[in-house]
Amino acid sequence: MPDRPEVTAVEIARLAGVGRAAVSNWRRRHPDFPRPAGGTDSSPTFRLDQVEQWLRGQGKLAELPLLERTWQQLESLRDPAGPPAAPLVGAGAFLLLLHREPAAWAALAEESDTRLATALPRALAALAARTLGPGGAALPALPGLLGSTDLDLARLLAALAAAHGPVDAYEQLLTRHAEANSRQLSPTPPEAAALLAAVGGHAGSVLDPACGLGGLLLAVPPAAVRYGQDLDPALTALALLRLALHTPADHPGPLALDLRPGDALRADAHPGLGADAVLCQPPYNERDWGHDELQYDSRWLGGHVPPRGESELAWVLHCLAHTRPGGLAALLLPPTVASRRSGRRLRAELLRSGALRAVVALPAGAAPPYGVPLHLWVLRRPQPGDDFRQVLLMDAGGGHPAGEGGRDRINWPELHRTVLDAWRAFDAAASAGDPLPADRAGVHRAVAAIDLLDDETDLSPARHLPPPALSGGLDGLTHLRNRLTELLADLGGPAAAPPAAVAAETAEPVPTVTVGELARAGALELHSSGPGAPSGGPSDGGAGVPLLTDQDLIAGTAPSARADAAETPFTTRPGDVLVPALGAAVARVVQAGGPLDGVALGRQLHLLRPNPQSLDPEFLAGQLRSTAVARRAASHASTTTRLDIRRAELPRLPIDRQRALGAAFQRVAAFEAALQQAAAVGRGLAQGLTDGLAAGTLTED
Fold first, then answer.
1. Which residues cross the membrane (predicted)?
2. If DSSP codes are grouped into helix, strand and coil, which group holds residue 618?
3. For the segment 25-71, what is each residue's pLDDT rounded down to a tens digit?
4. What is the pLDDT of residue 566?
5. β-sheet bridge partners, residue 361
6. What's the Cα-to-Cα distance from 334 to each of 68, 175, 682, rounded to whole Å?
7. What is the pLDDT of residues 97-113, one digit of tens each?
8. In 3D, which of 319, 323, 242 has the Cα closest to residue 280?
9. How many angstroms separate the CA atoms of 455 and 458, rounded?
10. Among 645, 639, 589, 638, which residue's Cα sits nearest to residue 617?
11. Which of these, 671, 670, 667, 684, lies nearest to 484 by C-alpha position?
12. Which of 407, 8, 7, 379 is nearest to 186 (CA)?
């Protein structure tokens, strides 16, 4: 374990806001670049203090952010042979001390390092016992003696908590941990967790048998008794500390939290528990889930053992077994669970028993894996005498075609309303014995269980919903046709036509200058968003600042999300040039009063703020859209192409010539925007005609 924090080339690039290729160039071109301190030949690591000093000396780093310093200190404590999350356990326990007993740390901070090295571990252990009760045993053993690196970390954590609060400080560290271990961790987004919690209703006790970082349990009010289990003991500890931190500091301990490590299918940590609600996003596509040793388990409905390839159905039955009679279970599952032939017998058993109440198709991007439109299954454990046998089938992702979704593109408030209104009306009618709500074409339909029992028992909502009515009907299609005609006529007019061009006379090559050199000379400011401001949901007019994503910029649309104003270091202003770090050659100028004016930057965006006296914004944007400029400034990873914006080369031209070229670039950009608008209207018209002809609601004239 290194005694000082070390960083990789990728982390150095993040610190400086550049691509990894730029770091490789620095190592080759600058003999004073820090030498590797560890790692391997293919993936070396460098001492953080040396890297920070070099970057600052080169003018590439003003000050290492406090969060980054804290994260690197945490990384220096990680044992390469141990779980990556282990240092976060101690950090979480310390932040919990700041959250619940800030005076205790204020007193300890005055002690000498020698006394603090033993006094702080005792204080953390006592706090865990008072606050977490028996659940404190889920915490891996905290050290009894702290070293100098641990004490430095404690002081950094105290500073981070003073700046953001202990709860937000821990959330930021957990986010960094999830990003650094994205292949092992796929946390459920808070918006999806809130949807499952709302479906579960006002439950007094809630269980998540695959809790991970505790996102689903976090969506439940602290007043509920929360149970959880996870295979990874370190993750269980992180989830326990996270839930404790989100509980009000004046809530008396021990808290109503019971999270335990272990394999929930093979070694159930809560035998006999019947919770009011069970919320779960289980692991997917597991082959080794315990099929052979669980042949005679009492959880299997009707004695039907889930097939080896149906691990998700094993989790469904596990959740149902832990739900009290009349209680609800809500699970996020892959869409194949509703249709795989190997699971048809168990799906049929769920229908015949009356346990399965709803299958809701969500848009792609609702939860990981983000490219797959997941299904939300809702089950209610039958009570004696319950003979209700209807299922609500719903397609809540109709406006988000598969593969075109994305967390930033989902209108979460609208999705919540659509799902919850339909589910609550259906469930209330079922409980009261009232008539079920009317079907809504293309959105939801109540289907008798017996009508779903056939050779396939396919529960995919799209298979059973009537086709949606044409948007706007025939009048809407006529409007689209007329609008398309107008746009095409405008494109052929002189006002929208691109500038006429002639071959330039042969001339001497024009000297060039890079964006990085312009930034050092003060001709422009350069800001790179990196991970960007955290999104607070879709841009639906709610609180916060409109947040522009890289996909919004590439598509030329208005911001699709919002950000907390406190989390946005700066916003755009007229004359700024915005460029995505990944993807095609795109550069857009912020116009006064336009949709890009006054917005926050999302992930992977560059903002260039030129001095208009020496650099014309439209000229700058036009040059950055050039294929040649983008190609020369590109750096390549294994699967993506990144624009190293500092390497982009521009011709050195007088300001008058820049403005003339900028005006031409602006006309070309307006022509392209008009083409895109006409194409969008044409696609909508073509799809509407296709759907109407296919459904038989339209016929050719």
1. none
2. helix
3. 888 888 899 998 888 887 888 888 888 888 878 877 656 678 888 88
4. 60
5. 375, 395
6. 36, 24, 33
7. 999 999 999 999 888 88
8. 319
9. 9
10. 589
11. 684
12. 407
Using one digit for the tens of pLDDT, what is the confidence trace for 439-490? Answer: 888 889 999 999 999 989 999 998 888 766 555 567 777 877 888 888 788 7
Q: Which pTM does this prediction carry?
A: 0.69
Distance CA 341, CA 505 (A): 69
Three-state SS letters, 249-301: CCCCCCCCEEEEECCCCCCCCCCCCCEEEEEECCCCCCCCCCCCCCCCCCCCH
Looking at mean pLDDT, say which of 191-195, 518-522, 535-539 comes out highest: 191-195
Q: Which two tokens stand for residue 133?
A: 């009760």
Which sign does the torsion angle of CA 274, 277, 280, 286 carry?
Answer: positive
pLDDT tens for 566-595 read: 666 678 999 999 988 876 678 899 999 888
What is the identity of the amino acid at 553? L
Structure tokens that stand for 426 in this block: 């259906």
CA-closest candidate to residue 532, choices 364, 407, 673: 407
Distance CA 198, CA 279 (A): 10
Place of tokens 């700066």: 570
Helix (H, G, I), strand (E, B) or coil at 347: helix
DSSP label at 138?
G
Q: How far apart are CA 34 and CA 31, in angstroms?
A: 8
Question: What does the pLDDT look like over 130-178, one tens digit per residue?
Answer: 898 766 766 666 677 788 888 888 999 999 999 999 999 999 999 888 8
- The tokens describing 372, both together, are 């797959």
Which contacts of 629-634 are long-range, i.e. CB under 8 A and separated by 24 or more positions? 629/585, 630/584, 630/585
- Beta carbons of 352 and 387 less than 8 angstroms apart: no
User: Who contacts 122 (Cβ-Cβ below 8 Å, separation ≥6)?
Assistant: none
Specify the 3-state DSSP secondary structure of 141: coil
All domains in the chain, ordered by first residue: 6-179 (no CATH), 193-210+264-463 (3.40.50.150), 512-652 (3.90.220.20)
Q: How far is CA 226 from CA 206, 236, 256, in A?
A: 5, 13, 6
pLDDT at 568: 63
**Type and span of the H or E element at 166:** helix 166-180
Model pLDDT for residues 228-275, shown as the tens digit of each residue:
999 999 899 999 999 999 999 998 889 999 999 999 999 999 999 999
- The letter for the amino acid at 542 is G
